[in-house]
Protein: Glucose--fructose oxidoreductase
Amino acid sequence: MSEPTKLRWGVLSTAKIGRKQVIPALQKSRLGEVTAIASRDLARAQQAADGLVIGRAYGSYEELLADPAVDAVYNPLPNHLHVPMSIAALEAGKHVLCEKPIALSAAEAEKLLAAGEAHPELKLMEAFMYRFHPQWERVFELIAAGTLGELREVRGWFSYFNDDPQNIRNQSDLGGGALMDIGCYPISMARFVLGREPVGVLARVERDPRFGTDRHAAAVLDFNGGAVATLSCGTQMAPGQGATIAGTAGVLRIEWPFTPPPEDSVRMWLDLDGATEEIVVGACDKYTAQADRFAEAVLNDQPVPTPLADAVANMRVIEAALRSGESGRRVAIG
Ligand SMILES: NC(=O)c1ccc[n+]([C@@H]2O[C@H](COP(=O)([O-])OP(=O)(O)OC[C@H]3O[C@@H](n4cnc5c(N)ncnc54)[C@H](OP(=O)(O)O)[C@@H]3O)[C@@H](O)[C@H]2O)c1
Structure:
């Protein structure tokens, strides 16, 4: 059998997530290879290229976008550059996989959606990699089988400790803050699990006095029809994450909903009729799985697994939660 054609990736910046996780995962993927990396600084790009064995290094993002040997761009720039550089990549004829959160606001996300629609020949997706871990197939099987009954509540939380003023997460003008960086995960997860959009949000948001960014947020999302999501996120808390999906018949607890470790199996617990069943799902590198699903969409000209409209909808909820945190009132969505 002949080798499948591989998608040739170019990476915008020497971002830590790219160097440590996503580039090695792209290189491991069945349908992808990394041909180029760019940085604002050529020496930094060259050093990353040497370390990661990437053929071409560029001293500007624009040079990489002009490289005909790049089919698709991975954009792990700070949040304020997600939309402008993804639009620039589309205009240069490249497919785009862009990091979360997709934009600084819903209006800005809509601009990217429009740019994507203006280039129907190109694929565009937000990199919510957690969805590509096979544990979610198991979750959806249980939901579809009615094991949990009618879903009433989805709970999710995500935290870490980082008070470095230089970090992009602690800079307002770069799109920092807990809701933007990690609150986006439980919001996305609740929408994914419930399969519809919330109609309102009530949030409590606490800001760091030095950075002005939200360092802790807790929110209730109203999904109408009897279901709610409760979530919290913190950037100055001990690291942790978890999710619980509670229905009229059963409760499912998920140990690693957002960043399941690539090398280990992960666990979920199903509480049903007074007994607890442990469910184990085998190890999977979610970044590699995401890379292959994206490449399949490009190489077979199929829709991407997560349409950009999903990213716009997620951004609407993040924005509404931030507004609710300002006013202390429920904010309607939609
Ligand atoms: N999906 C995930 O698992 C995951 C995990 C972590 C982060 N992320 C997302 O990935 C993105 C990058 O996160 P990160 O932690 O990897 O960031 P990071 O290490 O700070 O990297 C950001 C890169 O952007 C470039 N850059 C361009 N303009 C910049 C500016 N004004 N200030 C700082 N850097 C600038 C820099 O690269 P050059 O100097 O080389 O140009 C820098 O290395 C964020 O959007 C974040 O939300 C996703």
